[in-house]
Write a structure and sequence with these properties.
Radius of gyration: 25 Å
Number of domains: 2
Number of helices: 1
Shape: elongated
Oligomer: single chain
Structural class: mainly beta
């Protein structure tokens, strides 16, 4: 692993029974030092200095068969690119498109716009492919990474979703995506308030405030956190305050006993952004 490219968790050793691809631009001799020497060198290695504006993100593509590949995108002061390894049989591959080139690493100059066209390719027929981004901690908090499937138009806000799944066509396919950084004020959906209170008629009035249109789930938990009732599932709500009513009936169709309960609201936007909030309320009869 080259820490100047990706600073996340990785391995500094060549592990037996795994394949590695290396590209050389001039004749050279490749030397593998003994394990003890390599370990001592690793212990003496100094940390790589990076500009505060430098960042990188690892993308992984994994097939249901176990085939996997990865690519790295990000930004650095002067920019840096590395070619992608060639595919083999029964493969999945993820690359960054740069004209006619297919890259495995594309760290754009900080003077460029933050957008990357991606391709996920496979020769596997009708196979589930998962695209994931395991660690976004290296991305500045002001960035809003958004992944778009250009075939279907589906979008994923990457900070609150962990992956995207599609099934390859018969004979395999190349699926194209775009990864871009949305404006800092975009995709700031939140559940800013949940209020629940029992009325004189015995029902519970609920008010949920959303900062964006979303699909809303509201459920009732006992004080130990176990689900005991449901208010709504997948209800499409517009930005603003949504008003709901809960009858006080539990999951088994019987009235909940007197006591204190939790009301949990969970919202999802069409872009995959997620938010939740919780409040307490009492049932007294």
């Amino acid at each position: 692993r080259d820490p100047s490219v990706y600073t996340g968790p990785g391995t500094d050793r060549i592990v037996p029974w795994k394949g590695y691809w290396m590209k050389f631009y001039q004749p050279c001799e490749l030397v593998f030092p003994p394990v003890q020497v390599a370990a001592a060198a690793a212990a003496r290695r100094t940390a790589v200095e990076r500009s505060p504006r430098d960042w990188s993100m690892l993308l992984k593509a994994t097939a249901a068969t176990g085939a996997a590949a990865q690519a790295v995108v990000g930004r650095t002061e002067e920019g840096r690119q590395m070619a992608a390894p060639p595919p083999f049989m029964d493969y999945v591959q993820i690359t960054i498109v740069d004209g006619d080139d297919r890259l495995g690493v594309d760290l754009q100059s900080t003077r460029e716009a933050s957008a990357w066209p991606l391709e996920v390719s496979t020769d596997l027929s009708e196979t589930e492919i998962m695209l994931t981004w395991p660690d976004l901690s290296g991305i500045p908090n002001s960035y809003r990474p958004l992944l778009t499937d250009t075939k279907t138009g589906d979008k994923r806000y990457m900070r609150t979703s962990t992956g995207y799944v599609f099934t390859s066509a018969v004979g395999g396919e190349t699926r194209r995506f775009t990864l871009e950084m949305a404006p800092p004020d975009a995709y700031t959906m939140a559940v800013t308030g949940v209020v629940a209170a029992q009325t004189s008629g015995g029902h519970v009035d609920i008010r949920v405030n959303l900062t964006a249109d979303a699909s809303l789930d509201v459920e009732v938990l006992n004080i130990a956190g176990r689900k005991v009732g449901n208010v709504c599932s997948g209800r499409q709500c517009e930005r603003g305050v949504t008003t709901l009513t809960y009858s006080g009936t539990g999951s088994r169709g019987t009235r909940l006993p007197n006591g204190r309960y939790l009301m949990r609201a969970y919202a999802r936007t069409e872009h995959g952004q997620q938010a939740r909030a919780m409040t307490t309320f009492d049932i007294r009869r």
